[in-house]
Design a protein that fits this description.
170 residues; mainly beta; Immunoglobulin-like; six-stranded mixed sheet; 1 helix; 12 strands; globular
């Protein structure tokens, strides 16, 4: 208890890039969920969403970047895309095969790299990752890292984002 209290009271220092550890973001129910998809096929490409960030603070934040932390073996990350909930009829959860009939992401315009999230609101934008399956996937994604700015201060924050991605059984 004393160690936890001491750690909380000791002022943080920024990392070597001048970025502080943040606490302003949340991901709602998605932070508590483990999403499963067991229909991956080697050689195919897919889209997967990162959590829709919610600003839990009383000040707006500008999200500048988001990505998976330590993607599992068997997945080659191709790139990230910021998608508007207005362009995609809301926040979609799950995996989409690239250029499949249900793929509503590939053709969407790339409108922005950064976006503002109002205080105590979910973002109107979210990140999608495009990946290619290169082999068996035995580990899960577990963390997504967000970089953002609040006022003149830069932050980074990890959010839980568990995706259990597996190959389809033959």
């Amino acid at each position: 208890m004393t160690a936890a209290l001491t750690a909380w009271l000791v002022p943080q220092r920024p990392d070597d890039t001048g970025t502080w550890k943040g606490h302003a973001l949340g991901a709602g129910l998605l932070e508590q969920a483990d999403l499963e998809y067991d229909q991956l096929q080697i050689g195919k490409e897919y889209w997967l969403n990162l959590p829709q960030a919610t600003n839990a603070s009383g000040e707006p934040v500008t999200i500048t970047k988001a990505q998976f932390v330590s993607p599992p073996k068997g997945l080659e990350l191709i790139g990230y895309k910021v998608v508007s909930t207005k362009d995609s009829d809301g926040y979609g959860i799950g995996v989409l095969e690239v250029k499949s009939p249900g793929d509503d992401v590939t053709g969407l315009p790339e409108r922005t790299d950064t976006f503002i999230v109002k205080s105590h609101k979910p973002a109107d934008w979210y990140h999608m990752v495009r990946f290619k399956v290169t082999g068996p996937v035995t580990d899960d994604t577990s963390l997504c890292r967000f970089w953002y700015q609040q006022g003149a201060v830069k932050y980074r924050q990890d959010l839980r984002c568990v995706n259990q991605l597996r190959l389809a059984e033959k």
